[in-house]
Design a protein that fits this description.
The chain has 283 residues and is an alpha/beta fold. The protein is built from 14 helices and 5 strands. It has a 5-stranded mixed β-sheet with strand order 1-3-2-4-5, sandwiched between helices. The chain is elongated and about 80 Å long.
């Protein structure tokens, strides 16, 4: 039973639970020696951990011995069971539920075959095996066409392979209601990559803008090239100049371009500053 069920503590919680949950769901039983319902629930969890043979891991934490972790994760009453997937707490229950209800709780956590393929594909991608990752993601989508997270992952793989057109087609298949932050960020990167395929290099476009300062189309093209090159600050400045000077459709293109950069840039201060400047120009 030790292979699937084990005690954890403050010093090892990050490794035992948070890091380990990137490989398989980890269920944490927050308990205490004096708690009678805990003594009822604990053998149920241990039995199921053994029965499921590693499809989830059971970590048991004594809240009396490790109050800091219990407080950090908002444990108010025990037994409290929390489930972690990919480092995030995704589900929980409090009290000694009967075995049938604990099973239902667990079944919602256990990855489906499609989800298992997605997880394996991500490992392939991280290990530099894009072809293997793509094959697994496409297989996952055959098994479960509603696994839209796999479509986003596939878009990432295709974009990394410089196939922005194929990545855009994959992303377009995700229904609007399922387009979360990861989808929007990737879509912005894909759009930048597609535009970059048709643009000259930055030096050529800078020369065009210098020769024709009032050519806002050239300034927009320069901004798009700079985004593709990762020069986010210079790109935002170029976009903002178009917003400042224009009152036609070019202004809206520049505004949308800035919004795309806001999703891409990892400099919070830069984004915050240009958000304020954009708002001031639009008011």
């Amino acid at each position: 039973m030790a292979e699937y069920s084990f005690d954890t503590e403050t010093a090892t919680f990050e490794r035992d639970v948070i890091a380990a949950s990137s490989e398989v769901p980890v269920v944490v039983d927050f308990w205490a020696p004096w708690c009678a319902p805990c003594r009822v629930l604990k053998p149920v969890l241990e039995k199921l951990a053994q029965e499921y043979q590693g499809r989830f891991r059971l970590a048991k934490l004594d809240t009396d011995a490790h109050p800091q972790i219990a407080g950090e994760y908002g444990v108010r009453g025990i037994p409290n069971v929390k489930a972690f997937v990919d480092g995030e707490m995704v589900a929980e229950f409090t009290g000694a539920l009967p075995e049938s209800q604990v099973r239902q709780f667990l079944e919602k956590l256990i990855p489906s075959p499609a989800q298992q393929l997605r997880r394996a594909a991500r490992e392939d991608a991280w290990a530099g095996r894009p072809e293997a990752a793509e094959a697994k993601l496409r297989e996952a989508l055959v098994l479960d066409e509603r696994l839209h997270a796999a479509r986003v992952d596939l878009g990432e793989v295709l974009l990394a392979r410089n196939d922005a057109t194929a990545a855009a087609e994959v992303l377009e298949a995700v229904p609007e209601i399922d387009r979360g932050d990861a989808w929007h960020q990737l879509a912005a990167r894909v759009e930048v990559a597609r535009k970059a395929q048709t643009l000259p290099d930055a030096a050529t476009l800078r020369a065009a803008v210098a020769a024709r300062p009032d050519d806002l189309e050239a300034r927009l093209a320069l901004a798009e090239r700079l985004v593709a090159d990762g020069a986010h600050a210079d790109a935002l400045e170029a976009y903002l100049e178009v917003v400042r000077r224009d009152r036609t459709a070019l202004r809206d293109r520049a505004r949308l371009g800035m919004l795309a950069v806001f999703r891409l840039a990892d400099d919070a201060a830069l984004v915050s500053g240009y958000r304020r400047r954009l708002a001031a120009e639009l008011n």
